[in-house]
Design goal:
Layout lengths: L9 H9 L10 H22 L12 H10 L5 E7 L2 E2 L14 E2 L14 E7 L3 H15 L5 H12 L4 E6 L2 E5 L6 H5 L4 H4 L7 E5 L18 E2 L30 E2 L6 E2 L9
Parallel strand pairs: 2-3, 6-7
Antiparallel strand pairs: 1-4, 5-6, 7-10, 8-9
Helix pairs in contact: 1-2, 3-4, 4-5
């Protein structure tokens, strides 16, 4: 907004300069018309230049303007990432889809085993403006060297939303979690997050990709064994037809308190630099 106040108002700009014309020339209307016409063109040019910064605001820039902002921040749209051939294998129950090796089963287009397929690098481009904008906002924390937990929390919430949190931070190791399931584009960019988040040199960063609100552990903020997982202590059991199941006497069948064990913290390392020279 401060930049906009420096932009000249066309009429005011022109008349302020016309007032400087010497008295002996003010009797010539044709001369004054020429002066006003050309001063108006100058005011238009100044306003065009003055509007340029408004196209390069991080919150509103799009397309090429956002790309140029990214270049100034040292975070281009396209990045070299590690790529692997899909491997034959099986997922364990509850295991997140994102993992170190992409696994497929029978009849799914791969018969390679570990160490048998081509490994290398490819290019990942952040074409979507809003997705790219999140990375640029996060990059600012890194450029400023804001390595505190508060800044890291703000950065990951910029990337993934308010559910994101720092799960663990101690002894040279930080574990962060998006707090929800990642979308396909977000999952494809897993190798980029360690490169853009504000993590101090020498600190190891890994990711917990579970969607549970709390993780198994002891003490405040952690989830233990057999913890209640719904607000109500009991719920009514119903059948697929949406009719309540009832006893012969007509009493609705209800459960007892519902509990579950805390989700285990599974640290995922996307190895963001392993294949890069």
């Amino acid at each position: 907004m401060a930049l906009q106040t420096l932009c000249p108002v066309r009429g005011v700009f022109v008349e302020n300069l016309v007032d400087k014309v010497l008295t002996q020339y003010r009797e010539s209307p044709k001369l004054l018309w020429v002066i006003r016409t050309h001063l108006g063109l100058v005011a238009d040019a100044l306003n065009s230049i003055c509007d340029i910064p408004s196209y390069f605001q991080l919150e509103t820039a799009v397309g090429d303007q956002l790309t140029l902002l990214g270049q100034r921040l040292g975070w281009p749209r396209c990045h070299c990432v590690c790529s692997t051939q899909t491997l034959f294998g099986f997922f364990c129950e509850g295991e997140p889809a994102a993992r170190e090796y992409p696994l497929v089963g029978f009849c799914e287009g791969s018969s390679d085993w570990l160490d048998c397929g081509p490994w290398g690098s490819s290019t990942l481009c952040l074409e979507d403006d809003e997705f790219y904008r999140k990375f640029l906002k996060t990059r600012r924390y890194q450029m400023l060297g804001l390595y505190d937990i508060v800044s890291l929390t703000e950065a990951i919430q910029t990337l993934w939303g308010e559910e994101a949190r720092v799960v663990y931070a101690n002894h040279g190791r930080v574990v962060v979690s998006p707090g929800r399931d990642l979308t396909s584009p977000e999952e494809a960019a897993l190798q980029l997050y360690p490169r853009v988040l504000p993590i101090a040199p020498g600190i190891r960063l890994t990711f917990h990709l579970g969607a549970a609100d709390r993780i198994f552990g002891f003490g405040e903020g952690w989830l233990g064994f057999c913890e209640p997982w719904v607000q109500a202590s009991q719920i009514i059991v119903d059948d697929p037809s949406q009719n309540y199941l009832a006893t012969e006497g007509g009493t609705a069948i209800i459960t007892g308190p519902l509990t579950r064990d805390g989700e285990w913290m599974c640290e995922y390392d996307p190895h963001p630099y392993d294949c890069l020279e």
